[in-house]
Design brief:
alpha/beta; six-stranded mixed beta sheet; five-stranded mixed beta sheet
Length: 460
Amino acid sequence: MAYPVIKLKRGYDLLIEGEAEEKIIPLPETPTTVAIKPTDFLGIRPIPKLLKKEGSIKAGEPLFYDKDYGEELTWTAPASGEIAEIRRGPKRRIEAIVILLDKEQDYYEHEATLDNADSVRKALLSSGLWALMVQRPYGLVPRPDEKPDAIFMSMFDTHPLAPRLEFLVKDYEEDFLAGWEALKKLADGLPIFLGYSAERPHEDIFLSLNGENIRKYFFSGPHPSGNVGVHIHHVFPTYKGSRKIWTIKPQYLVWWGRLFRKGIIDLTTKIALTAHEVKEPAFYETIAGVNVKALLKDQLKNDHVRVISGNVFTGTKIDMEKGHVSIKDNMVTVIPEGDFPEFQGWLITHYPKPSISRTFLSGILYHLGIPVRYKVNTKMHGERRPFVVTGEYEQVTPMDLYPQHLLKAIIVKDLDLMEQLGIHEVIEEDLALCEFVCTSKTPVQKILREGIELFRHEVG
């Protein structure tokens, strides 16, 4: 059967040295803690209601809930152990709940059946695995009392150094397929859209996903062709928020499957340690939310680096001693800090730099289709300045939008113009490339999130 192929030309593939080899290596140090970060789940309050603040806790035992979402949706402990710390930020915002790991994991039992949509919904809400889904528009945790118009899942990831999703579910096939059955039950007849790469080969575990109301599309082109937001825009757009769409990543279905097969929360996963500052880029099998120190021991080429939970476009900087990988991330990227002086760096290329501009050799090579992998750092190569209208944003955004005009509308808080320019269509990951190529060094993702929050509170 021939499926539609959507060809995207706009975008940019940032190729970085240090791609993780698809093999699992032993952890250099036994993890001692895991953490769950409420800040990873957009839409909930900065200070959720804690159900347990101290003492021992089992994996999957209720830990907190959000008053706006109600007690029906409960976040649970990612592992068993002793609650070691409630880490707080500004205005007492809870940034992380840290658990000191047990040597042997003890699991809280959940009642979970695949009988119908209601039973699946109830199990996902009580287990906390519901919060792994993201609602469009706005990129929030879906509300338990609402139903979507469709569910989307991207079967490939085009972010820099992102692991192949088939490898993340390898060895967990039974759990993955059980999670897929749960997703179909939850959809309850609604369409499920699956987005595949037309350029990368997919394994049978993904290609064999079928059923009623399953719609498959193939996408070709550079990053962000793997972003689910791009798929939604081209296949089933939200039309100024008139549609609600839920999205989920394929690897999370493994955790769903374990819930329905075994009745427990087992967040064992694979995490890639990547980039050129790592001695042996590869994968670890461990518990999601693990302390990053356990992954980095004896693996760094030097200590003056930035450790990122996630990828270089949308990831979060974490402390290499006390930081934890986000439960929602399957990769850690390590690159040098770019705080060294560079004489006339804007004029003289002291080392190969990735760029879309033909001013640099790298830009010429890219436009000629010659792939080159780079050693990157955190240097911005400039400072923040007023918006310069260059058309750069449009070059890397494969959507019918005007990103720069949207950001200007957000800055002046023009709600009507924000809506007309498509604020319902995008979240941070969709415009992250704009921030990377921006001549004005504008914090695009920060401004966009501020605009989304303003819009949803003022307009709904």
